[in-house]
Design a protein that fits this description.
The protein is an alpha/beta fold. Helices cover about 35% and strands about 20% of the residues.
Length: about 450
């Protein structure tokens, strides 16, 4: 009556036999039909992209997803299982870019949006057979003959219908959300897309002094891993429950988290003045580092508080630029701070800044050097000279920088040369330099002679 159970332990062949039995007897369809009239449990597959080969990670997720519908079926539910294919997204576009030899959004637009979309629609089915074969092999049950496809008009229209329902119920609002962004592709990225190209890199970091308004020599000490965001700064953030020390160090009065002072000053001697709770600093105003921001009539450049500020590193004071960073955006919204965006969709600094056209990561050190020049006594001699000769060379004169060697921290913090040299730039290129120009008159003469060449 029964076939003898095999003892050969050939699990692979046995699994294939079972899968074939299910297919021959249409077991999947029958498991749904025999539950007619029962409570319905609907399963929609989180769709993979078929233009990439399936791998061990996909097998694991499909096995996990298959367990729940099977369990619900055994509990007496009629379980409808709809397979799907994700035919949108950056991976598809990148695959087609490589195929066509294109590089970036502008070249795609030159090639033509419609023909590019057509190529993408063809590309998404490149490995369809491998996906179907893998799904059958692991016993994954879903209706793959009638899948939902995200580029299909019916699917797209259903998405718009759902959005309309949300809007009509008053649940839709307009706001800003900070997400990962690819300037090369000119598009936002999903967490999955970011993970595909994630790697560890070394970044320029800096301790930055923000002068407290109405004082001669008192500063908030902040730390940043993104110097290119400093021109967009509109606030400083502390933790209201932590202790902050006001102390004299290197001829200046500084304020930062008490617990982190030693990590910043090292073995230097300091003179402790007062300990503050973070909440006591809230509302204190400071002078802006730069004046390029359009504040949209809103209050800026003062201290706010949030529990996300920790004392694991830095100074316990975080510089806030709401256009960059999820926490920055949240804090900006909570405190009604201005939204200052000084970076274009191509990832380059805005035209209203001295670093116009420079890619943001390339701007890290130039931003810090220019900030240094604002308060360095020697560098401040440049400003009057530029003011005096700048108008007649308005179409040529871009910026000047001093590399200054009397502050040993400069090379460590900013990674620039130690020779005290004034450099004159045009369109990002050095067009002249002079060692230790000295007086304002000497600087003015150097500028005139260089620009007249």
């Amino acid at each position: 009556m029964f076939d003898k159970v095999s003892t050969d332990l050939n699990f692979v062949e046995r699994e294939k036999d079972v899968a074939q039995l299910w297919k021959d007897r249409d077991v999947f369809k029958r498991s749904i039909d025999q539950r007619e009239g029962c409570d319905v449990f609907t399963f929609y597959d989180g769709p993979p992209t078929a233009n990439g080969k399936p791998h061990i990670g996909h097998i694991l997720t499909r096995v996990m997803k298959d367990m729940i519908p099977r369990y619900r079926t055994m509990k007496g539910y009629k379980v409808l299982r709809k397979a799907g294919w994700d035919t949108h997204g950056l991976p598809v576009e990148l695959e087609v870019e490589k195929k066509l030899g294109l590089d970036g959004k502008k070249q795609i637009e030159s090639y033509g949006i419609e023909p590019f979309i057509k190529q993408c629609k063809e590309s998404v089915w490149k490995y369809l057979h491998e996906w179907e074969k893998m799904s059958d092999r692991i016993g994954y049950w879903a209706d793959m003959e009638n899948p939902y496809i995200t580029y299909d008009n019916k699917y797209i229209e259903s998405e718009w219908w759902a959005l309309k329902q949300i809007h009509e119920k008053g649940l839709l609002y307009k706001g800003y959300k900070v997400v990962p962004y690819c300037p090369r592709c000119g598009t936002a990225l999903s967490s999955h897309e970011v993970a595909q190209g994630y790697k560890d890199v070394e970044d320029t970091t800096a301790y930055v002094r923000f002068k407290i308004k109405g004082t001669d020599n008192k500063y908030f000490m902040a730390w940043t891993t993104t110097p290119w965001t400093l021109p967009s700064n509109v606030a400083l953030c502390v933790n209201s429950k932590e202790d902050y020390l006001e102390f004299k160090w290197d001829g200046r009065v500084c304020i930062m988290a008490k617990e982190l002072v030693k990590a910043v000053v090292g073995d230097d001697e300091i003179e402790e003045i007062k300990t503050w709770k973070g909440e006591e600093l809230v509302g204190t105003e400071y002078e802006p580092l730069f004046d390029y921001a359009d504040l949209q009539g809103k209050k800026a450049f003062y201290v706010v508080a949030d529990s996300y500020v920790t004392l694991t590193e830095g100074t316990g004071i975080v510089h806030i630029a709401p256009a960059f960073g999820e926490d920055d955006a949240r804090i900006g919204h909570t405190n009604d701070l201005p939204f200052v965006q000084l970076v274009g969709t191509d990832g380059r600094m805005d035209a209203c800044t001295p670093w116009a056209g420079m890619f943001v990561k390339d701007a890290d050190k130039p931003v810090l050097v220019d900030f240094w020049a604002q308060w360095c006594p020697y560098c401040r001699r440049i400003a009057p000279a530029f003011d005096k000769v700048g108008e007649q060379y308005a179409d040529t004169l871009i910026t000047g920088k001093i590399n200054y060697d009397e502050e040993p921290q400069l090379i460590e913090r900013f990674g620039i040369d130690t020779i005290p040299t004034l450099m004159l730039f045009k369109s990002g290129e050095v067009i002249g330099s002079v060692v230790a120009p000295g007086s304002k008159a000497a600087i003015e003469t150097f500028i005139r002679e260089t620009l007249a060449q």
